[in-house]
Design brief:
It is a single chain. The protein has one helix and four strands; from the N terminus they run αββββ. By secondary structure, the protein is α+β, with helices and mostly antiparallel strands.
C-alpha cells in the first residue's frame, strides 16, 4: 500500500461487495418465498381437481342431492393433509368445502348440479381461496 487512497479504495470495494451480497441474499429469500407460495397453490389446485374428478365418476344421482343422507356434500368441510417436497417430508393442511346447487335449464329433461369446491390454506397469500366448479348432468 502506497498511501491512504488505497485504504479508501479498499473500504469502498468492501462496502460495494457487502451491498451486493445483501441484494443477492434478499433475492434468494424472495425467490424461496415465491417458490413456497406456488407449491401451496399447486397442491391446493390439485386437491380441488381430485375432488371434482371424484364427483365426475359418481353415477348415483342420490350421492349429489342435497338433503340426502348419502350425499357426498355431508362429508364436507374437512381438513385434508397433503405431503410434498423431496421425500414427502413436508405436509400442509388444506380446508376443503364442497357445495352442490341445482341448475335449471328451461325445456330440458336433464338434471344439472353445480358442484363448487373451495380450498383454503393458512399460508396462501391474502387469505386466497382456490375455487373450482363443475356442472354434472343426468338424464331423467
Amino acid at each position: 500500500m502506497n498511501d491512504y487512497s488505497d485504504i479508501i479504495y479498499l473500504m469502498g470495494a468492501m462496502i460495494i461487495f457487502s451491498m451486493l451480497s445483501l441484494n443477492v441474499s434478499h433475492f434468494f429469500r424472495i425467490n424461496e418465498q415465491f417458490q413456497y407460495q406456488n407449491e401451496i397453490e399447486y397442491n391446493g389446485v390439485a386437491l380441488a381437481q381430485d375432488i371434482i374428478e371424484e364427483v365426475r365418476w359418481i353415477s348415483d344421482p342420490d350421492r349429489i342431492t342435497n338433503g340426502n343422507q348419502d350425499c357426498i356434500c355431508n362429508d364436507y368441510p374437512q381438513t385434508i393433509t397433503r405431503e410434498f417436497g423431496p421425500g414427502q417430508n413436508n405436509s400442509l393442511d388444506f380446508t376443503v368445502d364442497l357445495t352442490i346447487t341445482d341448475v335449471s335449464v328451461p325445456g330440458s329433461n336433464a338434471v344439472n348440479k353445480r358442484i363448487e369446491v373451495m380450498v383454503t390454506n393458512e399460508y396462501l397469500p391474502d387469505n386466497q381461496v382456490i375455487e373450482m366448479e363443475y356442472i354434472k348432468s343426468y338424464i331423467e
